[in-house]
Specification:
Shape: globular
CATH topology of the largest domain: FAD/NAD(P)-binding domain
Strand content: 25-35%
Radius of gyration: 21 Å
Number of helices: 8
Helix content: 10-25%
Bound molecules: flavin-adenine dinucleotide
Number of domains: 2
Structural class: alpha+beta
Amino acid sequence: MYDVIVAGGGSMGIAAAYFRAKQGASVLVLDKYEIPNQMASHHGVTRMLRLSYGHGSSYVPLALESLKLWAELETSVGKELYRKTGAITIGYPDSEFVEMAIESAISNNIPYKVMTADELTDKWRGLDIPDDYIGCFDPSAGFLFSEDCLTAYKDEALKYGAEIHENEAVVSVEQEENFITVKTDKDTYHGAKVIVTAGAWLPKLLPELDLKIQPVRKTISWFKPHEDNLYGNDFPCYIFDTKDHGLYYGFPDFDDYGVKLGSMDNDINCEPDELNREYGAYEQDENDDRAFLERYMPQAAGELIDGKVCMFSRTPDDDFIIDVHPENPNIILAGGFSGHGFKFASAIGSILSDLSVDGTTTHDISTFKLSRFSKPDETLLS
Ligand SMILES: Cc1cc2nc3c(=O)[nH]c(=O)nc-3n(C[C@H](O)[C@H](O)[C@H](O)COP(=O)(O)OP(=O)(O)OC[C@H]3O[C@@H](n4cnc5c(N)ncnc54)[C@H](O)[C@@H]3O)c2cc1C
């Protein structure tokens, strides 16, 4: 009998396991693949972290807490996990995404600078943007080495006594009289509490909840710039809200990886176990990304260096689900991170650990409650 079983040791699950094991609990982590892996939602080297936040100002306290916890993890493992590059959110006039980034910086007292198109292209010569676009520069932003973050939490969790079983898939999570039984493809385990963090597979593990989560196929591409030094160490992370190409995000060309980018749009609905994981299987994989670069960062649109396929788990409102199971206080669930969850994995891990103690947390997670989908708001129902 474990104090806590974590079903899915990806971004959120392995962080939760670390925090709970550190408190002295007996923790078992079960993952269908290795931790980290190339099959779920956390691979592809990097994930952006911003404080001026286009998805809403309620995320900013969580981002600040996450930044603090990532720094603590870096110190514990003695390895760089976060690189501060700054980030610019650029968009057309009246872009709600840019307005929200500015508003979230103001309301949370975060340093930021609003810049005109001229100011942006003067500072970063690699940009080519329409005259009426504006940008919000967030100097505290940067990127996390996502796979290294998972390895760091895994190593630390093991240090605090967690048991980790990789390549062992959870098949069912069932309530017994006063404990939970977790069946896998190899064995059966019992836990006082279970944290279910199976990413794109979450709805399958908790079918009774009919979760409004849609897994979607996403790609990321790395391009070699035509001109060296334009997009290197002095170039920030970027998010563009454009009229012609939708929402794009990307990373500077550091350590010769190339310029990396991906689209927040252009989703293809998928079933995680049948996902076509071959980059280039669809023409849009490379073509859409290249077309964006040719328009907004033309000197970056050189040879394709690499490409990967990943999944977002979308909720109808793109807000997360972090909650206690409505019919079973011993099951805690987190998912539906809608393509922007990684930066928060440290804080969410600590919240899930709290919830697995007595169902409460001092953090405000009201935005993430499941009950929002049972309200009669047609826009939230899929
Ligand atoms: C291309 C791409 C770019 C992104 N960019 C950013 C970014 O810049 N910034 C940002 O903040 N976020 C970003 N995200 C989003 C972020 O990576 C995700 O929100 C986050 O990784 C989700 O974490 P998770 O723990 O829910 O899922 P995962 O990290 O996928 O973990 C789920 C785990 O559950 C395991 N699992 C599944 N089924 C079972 C089972 N039956 N039994 C046992 N284990 C199981 C899986 O193997 C996996 O390890 C991006 C995502 C993608 C795909």
